[in-house]
């Protein structure tokens, strides 16, 4: 079991973010006898997934939707699959956009390097 501070450090996020995720019902830590939050390994794995979704630009509203579907149970599997496939499509578009930008920047930086080496 992890404290909120420990899980925040492991994940590289703030305790404020963890409290926000709890408030938004994205994660539900257990409470010990004194009311302190405690996180299991399953919470850690779930939060790692949530962070990846966030890092890949999934809107928080969709993350909340996905989390609520998980809590509803197995009968939401198709809807969860659809949501993740839609996000995967979005990621693939991002990758293509970034690759095109990288190619453009590579061409531009090569041109500058050539120009500078000819002057120097």
Automatic annotation (TrEMBL):
Residues 1-69 form the HTH merR-type domain. Pfam families: MerR_1. Keywords: DNA-binding. The keyword Disulfide bond does not apply. The keyword DNA-binding applies. This is MerR family transcriptional regulator.
């Amino acid at each position: 079991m992890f404290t909120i501070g420990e899980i925040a450090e492991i994940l590289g996020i703030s305790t404020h973010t963890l409290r926000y995720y709890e408030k938004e019902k994205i994660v539900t830590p257990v409470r010990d006898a004194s009311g302190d939050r405690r996180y299991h390994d399953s919470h850690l794995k779930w939060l790692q997934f949530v962070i990846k979704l966030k890092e890949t630009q999934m809107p928080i509203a969709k993350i909340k939707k996905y989390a609520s579907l998980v809590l509803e149970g197995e009968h939401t599997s198709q809807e969860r699959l659809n949501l993740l496939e839609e996000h995967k499509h979005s990621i693939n578009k991002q990758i293509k956009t970034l690759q095109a930008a990288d190619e453009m920047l590579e061409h531009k930086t090569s041109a500058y390097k050539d120009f500078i080496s000819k002057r120097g």
